[in-house]
Design brief:
The complex is a heterodimer of chains A (727) and B (130).
Chain A: H1 3-26, H2 33-59, H3 66-71, H4 78-83, H5 89-110, H6 115-135, H7 159-188, H8 194-224, H9 234-259, H10 263-285, H11 300-324, H12 340-362, H13 364-371, E1 375-377, H14 379-402, H15 410-433, H16 439-462, H17 467-491, E2 494-501, E3 505-508, E4 511-522, E5 525-534, E6 537-541, E7 544-548, E8 551-555, E9 557-560, E10 564-574, E11 583-588, E12 592-595, E13 598-606, E14 616-625, E15 631-634, E16 637-640, E17 647-649, E18 651-653, E19 658-666, E20 671-677, E21 690-699, H18 701-725
Antiparallel strand pairs in A: 2-21, 3-4, 4-5, 5-6, 5-7, 7-8, 9-10, 10-21, 11-20, 12-13, 13-14, 14-15, 14-16, 16-17, 18-19, 19-20
Helix pairs in contact in A: 1-2, 1-6, 2-5, 5-6, 5-7, 6-7, 6-11, 7-8, 7-10, 8-9, 8-18, 9-10, 9-12, 10-11, 12-14, 14-16, 14-17, 15-16, 16-17, 17-18
Chain B: H1 2-28, E1 29-31, H2 35-41, E2 45-59, E3 64-70, E4 76-81, E5 94-102, E6 105-114, E7 122-126
Parallel strand pairs in B: 4-6
Antiparallel strand pairs in B: 2-3, 2-5, 3-4, 5-6, 6-7
The chains are: A alpha+beta (727), B alpha+beta (130).
């Protein structure tokens, strides 16, 4: 029987019991404490058992399970069998809920006097996942048991892909923590504690979702050969939007912690970030976007539930916030707009604005459906809306570096502005020298450069105080670097599509290229070799065509230089066939045929005299009749000298200016293939391998990765620091 | 003090950027339409069709990948995609083409290939990924 389904059903029952118990505790009925706790542990154990059980089913090649026959196969490597757990939708929900119940153990231990409400809201969030797992169970059986599975998509058979989804789901799971505490604060009307407790988890969300975005982008760039690291795809946006929400939340929480302000804003942001996760899940998992049929909700099973959850969460949480809004006392954050408090406020405003604009874009097929034909926005929408915001955020980041908390003096401020502004101007000048002509881009480089220098100065001047005091400045420096990397690599990437003929010299983007040939690495992979040369720098690029059951994957070859990446994406490979550009003719002995105005009869082979061990020379005695009736004898030679390629020595018919080549011989059948050309050039008959590549130069891509890694590192260290502060 | 103009600034920014958002949305929105409408409009649209696997051809001279799609009424349309054949094209049941109809063919700038079973259902083949 399907044990797994029962385990999940039982876990759901335990979750419901636990939710009910914590609700009773929240209402003041402490009798339920032990029961709630034990049902929580029962639920967690069952979820863990289900996940482990699923993995053992994968390892046991149990293809009677639909999920396993879809994502695994007999020949799949063992490590991929384990990670196939999250290769598809159902399994990834199982992974998500696993992280959820584990994080819940921390939540439970810290909730203290608000235990009932915190756990109630936390579990309601988990119930959302349980519902999805019960509707589409990963333990569904196949009607017919296939002998072998369909195998894991080769795109996912990759190191990055093994760690990317768990990190994203961990990030999603962590957004439930501030949400639960915020809702509990609203329910009890007590707001003193929740920010202090959940600040580390908000920072953790920034770290985890940032890592997820980084890995996803890197995977798309390095493996998938999409030519870029970001495509504003709904699936990508579904992790970007809550990331931005978490970033805004962290800033608000820090202001609340130190100044007692932004209390309502933070409740709003904690709720909103959580809802963004749910909404993103709805958009990407319900099939409303993936399918063209935004006209019809095909997948009613899941999407109906997702909509119900989304609406009830939204109404409940925002409703409670509005209901409480009068009773929340927030302190005035400061007196002067020339303060760090003020720019932090602006940062929150613009970051959340960017999140909402991305959300608007990704839900455009649903929104436009209300007013008419469903329409999707293209990428230009995202650039148009986010570029101005990014420019402003550059200024904000820079000002955050130069302004002090409280009140800044104009004179002091002017002094501190000089160096960052000067450096920003230098950045713009360098950009102009390198070809930047667009005024908006110059502005973006200016504000990012300003942000970079202003924060770098802070990092350097305060580094001696210890790492924990410069984490924020470090993160902001990283963000500025990432901005510069993004604008350079997206707007100033140059690319060329060229067809490379084997062994022929080619030229593109200042590099000399020569296609050396292709080889089969294994049954699924063809690797092309290209020799690339620029000055004294010679290297070999080997992009790969991966032929899989799910289609062709083009693994690019990337050569990293300090200032740019040379990105070589293989497009098409045509191996030698029989087609040639010259005219050819096949003749058996004694046969006559006509070609290029000549009537040619193949008389006999002439094996000639050859020395033992010397080159083998084969000739064909031909009688050639030209259009004017003249008959001539001709003997083209086919010389095998030991190399791969035979040497072809043509017979010249000087009267008519033709060259006859002996291209192929088959002595057993008494057959030859001859070719006729006007010029003495055997290459006209060579059938060559062709490789079409897309070669591009992507400036400063490294800055994108490097900046993002700094952000992730900073957020990770900051999570650790803030977790230690929580008693 | 700044809580007073915090509201004003916040509202002003939201109005300005909300307006920019809606304006950009309207400007870059590409409607999903049927074949007939795509032909008569000639503007930038998206169409969905079942792939006719017989007649697809990639011309390495012009760099155009040509194939045919048909809708549920059996209406057939030629699509010219300015790029190479998407990796999972052979496995595709249907494909979403974004572009415009002109000179008797649908000039696609972007293809969204729909596969029977894949992670997250679809791979986007874009010519303008950053």
């Amino acid at each position: 029987m399907v044990i797994g389904t029962y385990i999940l059903a039982l876990a759901t029952v335990a979750a419901l019991l636990s939710t009910f118990g914590y609700y009773m505790i929240a209402r003041g009925n402490k009798v339920y404490l032990a029961a709630s706790r034990w049902s929580y542990y029962l639920m967690s154990s069952l979820v863990l058992i289900a996940a482990i059980y699923m993995i053992t089913l994968f390892l046991g090649n149990r293809f009677e399970y639909s999920y396993i026959s879809h994502y695994s196969s007999l020949d799949l490597a063992t490590n991929f069998k384990v990670t196939s757990l999250w290769a598809g939708q159902e399994g990834s929900f199982l992974l998500w809920v696993t992280f959820g119940v584990l994080l819940g153990v921390w939540v439970k231990s810290k909730a203290k006097e608000q235990l009932g409400w915190v756990m109630f809201f936390y579990l309601v969030g988990q119930l959302f996942l349980f519902a999805l797992l019960n509707i589409s169970s990963p333990f569904k059986m196949n009607q017919m048991v296939p002998a072998d599975g369909q195998g894991l998509n080769p795109l996912l058979q990759n190191y990055w892909m093994q760690i990317h989804p768990p990190i994203v789901f961990l990030g999603y799971a962590s957004t439930f923590v501030p949400f639960a505490f915020a809702m509990a604060a609203l329910a009890t009307n007590r707001y003193s504690n929740w920010v202090k407790l959940t600040l580390p988890w908000a920072i953790f969300s920034v770290c985890a979702l940032g890592t997820g975005i980084f890995l996803g982008g890197y995977w798309a760039y390095e493996t998938l050969g999409w030519g870029g690291y970001w495509g504003w795809d709904p699936v990508e946006n579904a992790s970007l939007v809550p990331w931005l929400g978490s970033i805004a939340l962290v800033h608000g929480m820090l202001l609340e912690k130190h100044r007692g302000s932004f209390k309502k804003t933070n409740l709003f942001l904690a709720i909103t970030t959580f809802l963004m996760v749910i909404f993103g899940t709805f958009l990407t998992r319900s099939g409303v976007l993936a399918d063209f049929s935004v006209h019809s909700f095909v997948d009613l099973g899941l999407s109906a539930y997702l909509v119900i959850f989304l609406i009830s969460f939204t109404v409940l949480s925002y409703g409670l916030l509005i209901y409480r809004t009068k009773s929340i006392d927030s302190a005035d954050p400061g007196k002067s707009p020339l303060s760090r408090e003020f720019v932090v406020f602006l940062a929150m405003l613009f970051v959340i604005l960017s999140a909402f604009l991305v959300l608007l874009g990704m839900s455009s097929p649903l929104l436009t459906r209300i007013v008419g034909e469903p329409s999707a926005v293209d990428i230009s929408y995202y650039t148009m809306t986010n570029l101005p915001i990014a420019i402003i955020i550059g200024i904000i980041l820079g000002l955050g570096g130069v302004l002090s908390w409280g009140v800044s003096e104009w004179r002091e401020l002017r002094r501190r502005l000089i160096l960052p502004v000067a450096v920003a101007i230098v950045f713009v000048l360098v950009g102009v020298l390198l070809g930047v002509r667009n005024a908006v881009h110059m502005l973006f480089i200016f504000t990012s450069g300003f942000a970079f220098m202003a924060n770098l100065i802070e990092v350097i001047s305060r580094a001696r105080n210890g790492l924990k005091f410069i984490l924020a400045d470090l993160i902001h420096t990283g963000a500025a670097m990432m901005f510069i990397g993004i604008i350079a690599s997206s707007a100033y990437s140059t690319e060329e599509k060229i067809t490379l003929e084997r062994d022929q010299a080619n030229h593109a983007l200042g590099f000399n290229l020569k296609f050396l040939g292709a080889e089969s690495v294994d049954k699924d992979r063809d690797m092309a070799h290209i020799q690339i040369e620029r000055g004294s720098n010679i290297f070999q690029a080997s992009p790969v065509f991966l032929w899989s059951k799910q289609g062709l994957v083009r693994n690019p070859y990337i050569k990293k230089f300090l200032l740019y990446d040379l990105y070589i994406s293989p497009e098409e490979l045509k191996t030698a066939g029989t087609q040639t550009s010259g005219a050819t003719l096949i003749l058996t002995q004694g046969q006559t045929g006509s070609i290029a105005g000549l009537e040619i009869t193949f008389e006999q082979f002439d094996l000639g005299n050859h020395m033992e061990g010397g080159p083998l020379s084969i000739g064909a005695d031909l009688s050639v009749k030209s259009a004017d009736g003249k008959i001539a004898e001709a003997k083209p030679l086919f010389v095998v000298a030991g190399g791969d390629q035979p040497e072809l020595i043509p017979a010249k018919i000087s009267d008519v200016g033709k060259n006859i080549y002996l291209l192929k011989i088959n002595a057993d059948q008494g057959m030859i293939m001859i070719g006729v050309t006007d010029r003495d050039n055997p290459d006209e008959f060579k059938s060559t391998d062709l490789l079409i590549i897309n070669i591009s130069k992507k400036p400063l891509v490294n800055l994108v990765w490097f900046g993002l890694i700094i952000i992730i590192f900073g957020a990770g260290a900051s999570t650790y620091r803030r977790l230690k502060e929580v008693k | 003090m700044f809580s007073k103009y915090r509201m004003i600034i916040g509202l002003a920014v939201i109005v300005i950027f909300g307006g920019l958002g809606i304006w950009s949305l309207v400007g870059s929105a590409t409607p999903y339409v049927g074949f007939e409408q795509a032909r008569s409009l000639g503007s930038r649209v998206q169409v969905l069709g079942k792939v006719d696997h017989g007649g697809s051809v990639y011309d390495d001279k012009t760099g155009v990948f040509t194939f045919f799609i048909s809708d549920e009424n059996g209406d057939r349309m030629q699509v010219d995609f300015y790029g190479t054949k998407p990796g999972n094209f052979e496995q595709a049941e249907s494909v979403v083409c974004m572009g415009s109809f002109s000179n008797g063919t649908f000039q696609a700038k972007e293809l969204l290939v729909k596969c029977p079973s894949k992670y997250q259902g679809a791979e986007v083949q874009k010519s303008d990924n950053i």
